[in-house]
């Protein structure tokens, strides 16, 4: 049981470490031309932070649905905000659009988890009747 918890935490930490490294790498000219104000860049932000949020929800053993959901939402948003503010130090742009894309990814996963919970609660209520 302990090894499963360790595995889950390693997965989450690896995912977020990759986000930190990729966010703080100095941009190449090709990256600037390809990703500058690109919809693909925003999609990648949403997927990266949404995926991290989903992994965090899966890995964190915080008791209670709403507490666990809160951790899943707050941690990626704080990390994304801090990284956006630090990026100018490595020659990248601080982008409000990136922050919004990060939030959209996290919100999408949070909404899907809440919807899934609502459906499972309805199934349980329907079985009681």
Helical content (DSSP H or I, runs of 4+):
over 70%
Q: List segments where confidence is low: pLDDT < 50 over at least 5 consecutive residues.
A: none
Name the assembly state. single chain
| Percent of residues in beta strands | under 5%
Give an overview in words.
The chain is mainly alpha-helical and 129 residues long. The protein has one domain. It has five helices and no strands. It has helices at 2-24, 29-35, 39-59, 65-86, 96-128. Helix 1 runs antiparallel to helix 3 (39-59), helix 1 packs parallel to helix 4 (65-86) and helix 3 (39-59) packs across helix 4. The longest helix has 33 residues, at 96-128. It is globular and about 60 Å long. 18% of the residues are buried. The model has no long low-confidence stretch (mean pLDDT 88).
Brief synopsis:
The protein is mostly helical.
Question: Top keywords for this entry?
Answer:
single chain, 129 residues, mainly alpha, 5 helices
